[in-house]
Amino acid sequence: MRYLSWCSSPTEYSQTNCLLVRNTNKGQILKELRFMNCKSRIIFGLLFLFIVHISISQNTHEIIEKLEALIEKAANEKRFSGSVMVTYNGDNVYTKSVGLRNIENNQFNLIDTKFNVGSMNKMHTAVLILQLVQNDKLRLDDRLIDILTDYPNKEDFAKVTIHHLLTHTSGFGDYLGKIMAPPKDKYQEINDYLPLITSEELLFEPGERFSYSNAGFMILGAVIEEISGRSYFDYVQQYIFDEVGMNNTGFDLYMDTKLENLATNYTQMGSSGDVLDVFIHPGKGGPAGGGYSTVADWLKFGQALESCKLLDEEHIKLLTEGKVKVRGRKYAYGFFNENIESISVIGHGGGAPGINGEFEIYKGTGYSIAILGNLDPPAASIIKNGFRALLFDQ
User: Fold this and answer.
1) Helices 214-228 and 190-198, packing angle to 10 deg
2) CA 266, CA 283: separation in Å to the nearest integer?
3) 178: how many CB neighbours lie within 10 A of its CB?
4) Strand partners for 108
5) DSSP of 205-269, one letter per residue?
6) Sign (positive/negative) of CA torsion 113, 336, 244, 189?
């Protein structure tokens, strides 16, 4: 991967500037131009910028060509069905949809097809919590017992902080196994889930270790409701979806029969191995996941993060900088974070039977990618890993 940077000699700043194109894999300077007077620096600098622009454009074109081949291959092998979008410096440079959103009716996935995003909604919840922190309405070391005072397991709530919930180190477990294939209208509000959570003891002492917890993020939704005095769904709509322009994102996947262009989830996780239309998820998503979105909407969210539209720079860093080690990478607040060749990568995926999505920002490179699909994991992860390999010449 190539990138452009200016460098200046601290002792000869008024006389010498150098423009570098580096190959980050080999760590070698490919080209260095030095100009000893201002006029020459301007002329040759502009010329070199033009050459570099062509080089970067060609590099992007090459990446996209190979990504196209990767997606086509995965689709032909029935390993991926869904939509992919790539942006570079905020501009859409690639979109692709493959496969069927509804096999029975022979309806194809389109770039505006809505998919269940699984756990990717955790990023939204984390942003809302950090907004409250930024606005001095909440502290990361606040204890649950001081916020949610009406819940029964006060001993556990006295130990758990907001930081613990955001990093999956709270000791809370999960609730998904208790609500497989529920009636569509049974779990509509956050309070509908809390009895499933608060009736269980902590699995370990808070802060002791990482253990992925949907329950923890559902509780964060309750915290947002308690502090704001509004429903989580109204709050995220105003402070993220409306703010960013995510007009094709929401939570009522299976409640609203008029929701257009929604992909059906297909799984091969059954004992027969056949492709089955699966409905085992709650009818409405929430703070821990299960909402719907499009790849275009998801990249709007990413651009809003990078431009500090949703949080200031300090709190963006706090949100996305890794804190807890998890199998070769780190978990931040609702985001995974890892470094690849000195590039910080942030994002989160989502996966369940018939559901797989991925979203990543490659900080400093200009690239972001959103992938949403309606097949079992690792459908979207195959595309993400392939894109990474292309981007970092792996």
Assistant:
1) 130
2) 16
3) 12
4) 100
5) -TTS-----HHHHHHHHHHHHHHHSS-HHHHHIIIIIIHHT-TT-BS-TTT-TT-TTBPPPEE--
6) positive
**Structural Rg of the chain based on CA atoms:** 23
Structural contact between residues 17 and 8, judged by C-beta atoms closer than 8 angstroms:
yes
CB 289 within 8 A of CB 215: no
The number of beta carbons lying within 10 Å of the beta carbon of residue 296 is 20
Cβ atoms of 218 and 287 closer than 8 Å = yes
Q: Are 334 and 127 in contact (CB under 8 A)?
A: yes
Q: Is the pLDDT of residue 51 over 70?
A: no
For residues 209-230, average pLDDT: 96
CB atoms within 10 A of CB 80: 27
264: its two tokens: 């059906």
The yes-or-no verdict on residue 133 having pLDDT over 60 is yes
State the DSSP code for 11. T
Burial of 173 (0-12, 13-18, 19+ CB in 10 A): buried
Q: How far apart are the first and last CA of the chain?
A: 10
What is the model's pTM? 0.83
Let me know how many helices (H) and strands (E) the chain has, helices first: 11, 17
| In 21-151, alpha helices (H) | 38-76, 121-134
Distances (CA, A) of 90 to 119, 303, 310: 24, 7, 16
DSSP letter for each residue of 19-55: EEEEETTTTEEEEEEEESSHHHHHHHHHHHHHHHHHH
Other C-beta atoms closer than 10 Å to the C-beta of 369 total: 26
The dihedral built from the CA positions of residue 285, 290, 293 and 299, taken in this order, carries a sign that is: positive
| Residue reference for tokens 């499009």 | 294
For range 291-317, the mean pLDDT: 97
| pLDDT given at position 45 | 52
Residue 163 parent element (H or E)? helix 162-166
Across the chain, mean pLDDT equals: 84
Q: Cα torsion for 115, 118, 121, 126, to the nearest 10°?
A: -160
* Token digits of residue 280: 């085992």
